[in-house]
Specification:
This is LADA_0E08944g1_1. This protein is of the alpha/beta class and 173 residues long. Helix content is 35%, strand content 28%. The chain contains six helices and six strands. Strands 2-3-1-4-5-6 form a six-stranded mixed β-sheet, sandwiched between helices. The radius of gyration is 15 Å and the shape is globular. The relative contact order is 0.21. The structure holds guanosine-5'-triphosphate (GTP) and magnesium ion. Magnesium ion binds next to helix 1.
């Protein structure tokens, strides 16, 4: 008695924060050191078994480069879930993430489920400098009602948990 739930999910965030790398890790359990920037957007799917049902993620991975900014509404308009991604070593990318959260709350589906994702945690674990405090991001997540994760697409740390968290929240609705 296995039911399948489809979830339309969009990734948003500044260029080079690791959106495509998070998707590559989730879909293929792989990582590329020199991943090329996304042009426009990419579409990928992945199925996950959750207890007695299956979730099929239909993933729109958008391009972060400014010249593609006008395309984003096409991808988030019908989305049930969004990952707003920033780089924990790039403060500017967190400012951009705040803007995305605001825009989603103003323009996207009223009941969209949003996860705030601080990526590239491996850099800090290997001695690099953290530039976005965990507490600052947690505060934003709490105020805005977002799920919150820090991930590394490179090591794979916490990537599946983001998608499972979204899946659980949608299943509970
Ligand atoms: P756009 O498509 O231009 O918006 O960029 P993006 O957000 O999809 O970033 P992408 O996944 O292409 O990654 C950009 C660069 O960061 C690549 O060189 C990746 O290898 C690297 N990168 C991505 N995730 C991580 C991570 O978790 N840790 C480290 N150290 N590097 C990462
Ligand atoms: Mg990309």
């Amino acid at each position: 008695n296995t039911s399948v739930t489809s979830i339309k999910l969009v990734l948003l965030g500044e260029a080079a924060v690791g959106k495509s790398s998070i998707v590559l890790r989730f879909v293929s359990n792989d990582f590329a050191e020199n991943k090329e920037p996304t042009i426009g957007a990419a579409f990928l799917t992945q199925r996950v078994n959750m207890g007695d049902h299956t979730i099929k993620f239909e993933i729109w991975d958008t391009a972060g480069q400014e010249r593609f900014a006008s395309l984003a509404p096409m991808y988030y308009r019908n989305a049930q879930a969004a990952l707003v991604v920033y780089d924990v070593t790039k403060p500017q990318s967190f400012i951009k993430a705040r803007h995305w959260v605001k825009e989603l709350h103003e323009q996207a589906s009223r009941d969209i489920i949003i996860a705030l994702v601080g990526n590239k945690l491996d850099i800090i674990e290997n001695g690099g400098e953290r530039k976005v405090a965990r507490e600052e991001a947690e505060n934003l997540a709490q105020q805005e009602g977002l799920l919150f994760f820090e991930t590394s697409a490179k090591s794979g740390s916490n990537v599946n948990e983001v998608f499972l968290g979204i899946g659980q929240k949608i299943s509970l609705k």
